[in-house]
Write a structure and sequence with these properties.
The chain is α+β, with helices and mostly antiparallel strands. 26% of the residues lie in helices and 33% in strands. It has 7 helices and 16 strands. The mean pLDDT is 90.
């Protein structure tokens, strides 16, 4: 692991990466054991769901989409058919929750050529999925959610990520999280990546532990949760749901 970290730092130091190539968050896939059950739960949270499409490798999925192109994807794989389904399948054997996290880039192909995301796994770069099949009702979330604004990463590779963000000209600041934890936070034009110690992993070696969804009206969200009998931890302008409720992810709603 230390050797891989050193190689990553050395390779990043030699790469002349363009500035302003990473804009914000792309999406996160959250693997779940029972897709129907998980979908029903997220509907109770006030999300509208866009049905997934058929995948030849057996993947089943559902989409929680936002107008800016960010997304939470609920996904499951019943058997290992290829490298992707094998990772989902093996991850599910350890527990539900996020597997990857995507950053929205102006030129993801160029970044993928220059950055070894095998070392920075579970990072990937995307261009946000604005589909011609998206309909207004897919974005009409009754909880007033409108964007996926942050990813929470609990990792041993904080120095590597900091080096990457530095090369990309992304500012990093300190941010106070739950329980008084101070996190290194990469501030993007549209969102942020919060770097936390690996000791906070919900499941060992599963690095993506949480996400923040922006809402227009936190009171409306609280009313929906109360009607559904769902309790979260409240603060002045946010509400946090635990991984035990949400199929493996800290889910923060923030106004």
């Amino acid at each position: 692991m230390k050797k891989h970290l050193l190689l990553a730092l050395l390779s990043l130091s030699l790469i002349p990466l363009p500035k302003d190539i990473i804009i914000g968050i792309d999406h996160i896939p959250v693997v779940v054991n029972n897709l129907d059950s998980a979908t029903n739960f997220y509907k109770k949270l006030g999300f509208s769901i866009k049905p997934g499409r058929f995948h030849q490798n057996g993947i089943r999925n559902q989409h929680i989409k936002f107008p800016d192109g960010t997304e939470i994807e609920l996904i499951t794989a019943s058997q290992p058919m290829d490298p992707l389904t094998t990772e989902y399948y093996n991850s599910l054997k350890e527990g539900e929750g996020p597997v990857y996290f995507g950053l929205f880039a102006t030129n993801p192909a160029a970044l993928n050529k220059q950055i070894d995301t095998n070392i920075l796994h579970p990072l990937f770069f995307g261009s946000r999925n604005h589909s011609p099949t998206d309909k207004p009702e897919h974005f009409a979330h009754s909880n007033t959610a409108y964007s996926l604004r942050s990813i929470w990463l609990a990792t041993d590779h904080i120095p590597t990520y900091l080096q990457l963000f530095k090369k990309l000209g992304i500012k990093v600041k300190q941010k106070k999280m739950f329980s008084g934890i101070i996190a290194q936070t990469a501030v993007l034009k549209e969102g942020e990546v919060i770097l936390l110690p690996a000791s906070l992993q919900v499941i060992p070696h599963h690095q993506v532990i949480g996400a923040t969804v922006q809402v227009k009206d936190l009171k409306k969200l609280k009313t929906i949760l109360q009607q559904s009998g769902i309790k979260g931890s409240e603060s002045t302008n946010s509400l946090l749901l635990s991984p035990a409720l949400t199929h493996g992810i800290y889910l923060e709603f923030k106004q």
